[in-house]
Amino acid sequence: MSQLSLRLRLMLGFILLTLICWGVASVGSWWQTRDKINALFDTQQMLFAKRLAAMDPAQLTQQPLTLPKTKKLLRHHRGEQDDDVLAFAVFTRDGRMVINDGDNGKDFRFQPSRDGFSNGKLKGDDDLWRLLRLPTADHQFVVMVGQQWEYRDDMTRDIVQANLIPWLVALPVMLLLLLWLVMHELAPLKRITRQLRLRAPADETPLVEPRVPQEVRPLLNELNALFVRIGEMLQRERRFTSDAAHELRSPLAALKVQTEVAQLAHDDRAVRHHALKNLDAGIDRATRLVDQLLTLSRLDSDEKLQTEPINLQQLLQQAAIDHYASAQDAGVEITLDAPDSPVIRAGNPLLLALLVRNLLDNAIRYSEPGGSVQLTLSARGIKVVDNGPGVSSTALSRIGERFFRPPGQEKSGSGLGLSIVSHIARQHGMQASFGNRPEGGFAAEIGW
Q: In terms of domains, do 380 and 269 share one?
């Protein structure tokens, strides 16, 4: 059943539920009508018996009085009536019949001591009758009134049929209208399905369907939002591919040149050693570039950050220790200034460590030999300053853009370090700002 279409399941469900409801209503109607018919005829029998019990006993002769049949009294215009289904007879206390209706009443069996309603049979007849025994006020006579159960059941059936046949005739029409309504209301879903089937993989335009049901509208909105996110993801992937191809072209070309130089060196060990050294440095630069590109690609994604409380003093101390050797090689001194009380902030430890590492790498690379890099932690942010040449005022506004490097830079780099810093800061709800120091040098500050 789960493999059937929604439209077919709704159609089958409507048909099944309609037939079940119609069947239950028919049975309920039959029982209710039967109960009302029995109550009505019981009342009729009681009133008829009370009328007979009010007769003057002196009018009754010693011989049983039998009334003539209706057909003998009225030859024409008798109406539609069944005068043989309701019968009566009057008995004396000792069981002698003194009067009957001239038809079935003469076959009543006298019941000596059972007043009220009961079920029984007539003489020579197997049909079941509803019988009423009612004594007269002076207790000299007993009135018995009976009616066939078959007549009551037939009456019940006829009334129920009269009520249900119009509904039975209208049932196919109602089912057809229900099926049409299901198809009509599901038509917008078919149109949405057709749009999806004909949609190009890179199509970012939203699905448009004015008659979509209110219950399906959130699904349509989420689909359109998904298309937007997929479009943004594809743009990021295209940009990453384009950036990677552009930025890797120069390092790879340099590696190829150094490889050719090493091959042409032959017995010149100095030239070959120099070429291999440059080749090794080029591989390191290419590796760093690829690592930064992959990091930037991950930061561009919409993945939810896994955060935890981080002690920033410990994080900065570890970063300073990790960069101590490279700073000594460059002739730069690293100092750390942090408060005594712990500064705890929720964040991703790997990304925040990467943020501090990029800031220190950038500061060490552009500091002059004999200079210093100051790493400062406060309750409101992190600050990294150096005593390098800084950047020009025209280039300062573009610092943090991917692949942007100020003109005239002699140091190697890809222009991704500060861009990664800006991305990580934004993901953690922080603000990254960069600027020149009045006394000289460059300052990068991460505030929150």
A: no
Q: What angle do CA 38, 41, 45 make, to 5 degrees?
A: 135
Co-location of 135 and 225 in the same domain: no
As given in the structure block, the two tokens for residue 30 are: 């039959």
148 and 238 assigned to the same domain: no
Cβ-based burial of 111 (10 A; exposed 0-12, middle 13-18, buried ≥19): middle
- Residue 202 resides in a domain: no
Tokens of 284: 């390191």
285 and 343 in a single domain? The answer is no
**What is the per-residue pLDDT for 64?**
56
Nearest to 261 by CA among 284, 280, 278, 285: 278
Range of the domain at 11: 6-72+83-156
Instruction: Give the residue from 151, 100, 157 showing the smallest Cα distance to 129.
Output: 151
Query: Which amino acid belongs to residue 61?
Result: T
- DSSP one-letter string for 288-355: HHHHHHHHHHHHHS-PPP--EEEEHHHHHHHHHHHTHHHHHHTT-EEEEE--SS--EEEE-HHHHHHH
Average of per-residue pLDDT across 64-84: 57
Q: Who wins on pLDDT, 420 or 436?
A: 436
Same domain? 415 vs 284 = no
Q: Is the pTM of this model over 0.70?
A: no
149 contacts 141 by C-beta, under 8 angstroms: no
Q: Are residues 312 and 294 in the same domain?
A: no
> Long-range contacts of range 90-97, CB-CB < 8 Å, 24 or more positions apart?
90/52, 90/55, 90/60, 90/141, 90/142, 90/143, 90/144, 91/141, 91/142, 91/144, 92/140, 92/141, 92/142, 93/139, 93/140, 93/141, 93/142, 96/64, 97/64
Distance CA 122, CA 144 (A): 12
Predicted pLDDT at 278: 78
Residue type, 346: A
Of the two residues 435 and 6, the one the predictor is more confident about is 435
Same-domain check for residues 328 and 438: yes
Q: Where are the alpha helices (DSSP H) in 137-216?
A: 149-197
Closest-CA residue to 120 (of 96, 145, 141, 98): 145
Return the structure tokens found at 285: 């630069």
